Amino acid sequence: MGSESQNQPQQEASSMNAIFVMLLGLAAMFLGYVFYSKFVAEKIYKLDPNFKTPAHEFEDGVDFVPTNKYVLWGHHFTSVAGAAPIIGPAIAVIWGWVPAFLWVIFGTIFFAGVHDAGAIWASNRNKAKSMGSLTGDVVSKRAQTLFMIVIFLVLLMVNAVFATAISGLLVKFPSSVIPVWGAIFVALIIGQIIFRKWMGLGTVSILGVVALYLLIWAGPSAPLSLPETMGGLTDNASWVLILFGYAAIASLLPVWMLLQPRDYINGLQLFIGLILLYAAVLLLGPDMTAPAFNTNLPENTPSMLPLLFVTIACGAISGFHGLVASGTTSKQLDKETDLRFVGYFGAIGEGSLSLATIIAACAGFATLADWEAVYSSFGQGGVAAFVEGGANIISQGVGLDNEIAETLLTVMAVLFAGTTMDTGLRLQRYIFQEWGNIYNISWMQKALPATLLAVISCVALAFGAGSDGSGGLAIWPLFGTTNQLLAGLTLMVITVMLVRLGRPMYVTLLPLIFLLIMTVFALFIQLKGFYMEENWFLFGLDIVVLIAAVWIALEATSALSNLKKEQKS
Questions:
Q1: Which residue from 103, 213, 433, 504 has the fewest beta carbons nearer than 10 Å?
Q2: In whole angstroms, what is the distance from residue 141 CA to residue 164 CA?
Q3: Residue 385: is its pLDDT beyond 80?
Q4: How far apart (Å, rounded) are the C-alpha atoms in residues 278 and 5?
Q5: Is 73 exposed, middle or buried (CB count within 10 Å of its CB: 0-12, 13-18, 19+)?
Q6: Maximum alpha-carbon separation in the chain
Q7: What is the pLDDT of residues 273-327, one digit of tens each?
Q8: How much is the mean pLDDT over the chain?
Q9: pLDDT at residue 175, as a whole number
């Protein structure tokens, strides 16, 4: 068998030029925003500029704050982006760059934009309730209970695993430490300037970006590393604790003070980084080294169908986006019509990052052999492939020093992951507070105790299954399927709302059906794998998620059926 595989003809690299891939992808997403998002906003969601948003109705200066749409776009986009639109596509290209490219483009236009804007709309029309709370009103109380469990699991995985990912990057790239933590102080200053209106948004944007890039330039000249062991903890574990301490404080501060300005500047930084990377592609004109369809898959690589659709979540569609959209974004929406730009264009921004990741991971290596050395097994690639491949393209295309290019891309990934942690912990605090309201536990309804519970649960997972703080990776194999299930459930709530209003529902129903089929299919495949590996913890958790998926789908079907009967009568 081995000799037969050695005698097979060597697969060839794709002859497609990365410029064509880039222009085709960007043009498709641009047209999707101009035409499809306008149709969805005007004909499906029927956005009303005169509707009084919860940000005005419940304005408190902490969570409910009417916000400029460009600043809010920065918060929403960078909160939902994290490192996931880099990690997912950079892993999924192992099946070839064409499948990943198609899912990112079509997923962004017809799935993510509709889902993200719809989640903001649904929450905005219901006093900024979260998707979990909204499920109880729209579907049923049983569905709400199950939905809240799924949400809690997703947030637990996101917070615990992103802390591990960030700590690993800070250890591997010490030149990124000063830019990453310096960006927090820049954001605090910018937050005061914007909130107190000391300067115009254009001026403060330029100053913030300049400060951030000065930090990136200074990073390689002053790399910082923690001691390999400190107080009995490894450097990775120490960073994990520091990150959770920071995220806890950030989640309690008013959104205008740190969350909004940090996310806004990160959003601008991303677009500058993307422009730099795309400009380098135009100047260098590299070919896609990776195969269009990989016929030489490493051993134990799973089937592309359905796992492509759960491996690439952020960058195509992700349930976590619905949590951010209904958890923090809807509380800051100044005008309802702003949500087309904030939600749908936020999805376009994420799609453009995933497109850049595909190009960096597939055109940033000199030869097919170099690419195959990185993708020697399933799960390889990730952020490291994006940083290495992207830095090669930037340094060769625009002449930037390779170390500075690596630092720039690493800081981009870390800052996104960090903003996701900020928002993720705040959302987890909201979950505990909502549980406090549901079960009449008065102390849990307060911000500080709820935040402590959120941190304790994340730290317990991080260190309970890994002494270096990487315990979140224990349940990470289920993240993709659980996250996509959450996206399907969010679309389900939006669909029921559309039916109640007598509006066309196919825009959300078709993506919903597709996602549920792929997710349940993937859950069964994973269930078999966990059984073969005798991983009984994940096997049991997989069954819990499967039961929740089927149960909530039945509850939604029942709700839709009852609505149809009411409308006929």
A1: 504
A2: 35
A3: yes
A4: 38
A5: buried
A6: 73
A7: 888 999 999 999 999 999 999 988 888 888 898 899 998 988 899 988 998 899 8
A8: 87
A9: 85
| First CA to last CA distance, the chain | 67
- The pLDDT tens digits for 39-80 are 999 999 999 999 999 999 999 887 899 999 998 988 888 778
| DSSP designation for 465 | S
* Three-state DSSP class for residue 458: helix
Structure tokens at 473: 């990776």
418 Cβ neighbours under 8 A, 6+ residues apart: 162, 166, 180, 243
Amino acid in position 100: A
Q: Which two tokens stand for residue 266?
A: 């990160």
> Any idea of the CA torsion for 170, 172, 174, 179, to the nearest 10 degrees?
-50
Nearest-angstrom CA–CA distance, 522 and 535: 17
Rounded alpha-carbon distances, angstroms, from residue 246 to 257, 301, 451: 14, 37, 12
Burial of 429 (0-12, 13-18, 19+ CB in 10 A): buried
Which residues pair with residue 284 across a beta bridge?
Answer: none
Residue with tokens 């591990």: 164
Residue-wise pLDDT for 387-421, tens only, equals 889 999 999 998 888 888 888 888 777 777 777 78
CA–CA dist 152, 162 (Å, integer):
15
